[in-house]
Amino acid sequence: MSAVIEIEGLRKTFHTLRRGRRVAVDGFDMVVEAGQVHGFLGPNGSGKTTTLRALLGLVRPDDGRMSVFGVPTPEELARVAGRVGAIVESPQFFGNFTGHRTLRLLAVAGGVPTSRVDEVLEQVGLRERGDDRVKGYSLGMKQRLAVASALLKDPELLILDEPANGLDPAGIREMRDLVRSLAASGVTVLISSHILAEIQLICDHVTIISGGRRVAAGRVDEVLAGFDQHEWQVDVAGPERAAALLREAGLSVTDHQGLLVVGGAREPELISRTLGEQGLWVRELTPIRPDLESVFLELTGTAPHPTLPRQVGGPALPGEGPEPMIDLDATAGRGVDA
Length: 338
Ligand SMILES: Nc1ncnc2c1ncn2[C@@H]1O[C@H](COP(=O)(O)OP(=O)(O)OP(=O)(O)O)[C@@H](O)[C@H]1O
What we know:
This protein has 338 residues and is an alpha/beta fold. It has helices at 48-55, 77-80, 99-109, 115-123, 139-151, 169-184, 196-202, 220-225, 239-248, 268-276, 292-300, 328-331; strands spanning 3-16, 20-33, 37-41, 63-68, 71-73, 84-87, 157-161, 188-193, 205-210, 213-219, 231-236, 252-256, 259-263, 282-288.
């Protein structure tokens, strides 16, 4: 496999009026290989968008090396720009234009044959609605129109920043199907998200970022396996005696109202044999596999607030309101940071 994106030691500092200097990305590394559907996962404010913006030359990094298709970026990005489709800032469309007209204009502006318009509308499932005005589109349809615009040049690499943001479950499912079909057609996809279930469902590889640093990377199943505690949920008649026997066998046991959670058993046979030999018959033995959410919480320290429903990357906690931001680089005319 060859690397499509390589980031090494990326660093970017912003300056805010209220809090002064703030390190957004702090020596971050990432490798995305050809053919991957790669999840870029991290809590709000962990540095995902800044990383993507730096990669695409929208913000000037302080330090680090980056390349896309082996070409150093942002310096020589123009050489490979035709092979990359990206939606990093939410594109704004004219509400009065139809989807078809919007894409046609973008195709002409980008030097892409206008015959691509119908193809990409088909690809994102908007063919039927292509002659409707954009202002009548749902948020999910607008997102798909954005993806369609990125697909016009038939990219080999597609970068999507939080594509499921603000979508309802049906919209999320549509976006997921779209990403899957693009991946199946050979496009390498990098998706940033704080929606863990999405990453777990769509992506084969993941890089987890926290506080501007990479905290885990690899195949999703391997990252998860690294956190497997070999735990099992055991339903057995006589849980108290069973717990004592299992502890004697060297296993960790916690009793959850009669259901035992047994840790440290690589194979379930150890549990069933230990209990069966003493005449205790297991009614149910279920593996407790770590999911990306628990791994993510452990790695990034994003614990649920005790008084709020659990929501990773959701709205700020009470007292943590947004602060006015200003990028002094941009005001000094050194970058294009907003
Ligand atoms: N233009 C800017 N000026 C000042 N600070 C910024 C700017 N852009 C980002 N930051 C800060 O950099 C940090 C990383 O932000 P970034 O948007 O990259 O995170 P993120 O992981 O994409 O978060 P989200 O999931 O909320 O989009 C945050 O602390 C943010 O406040």
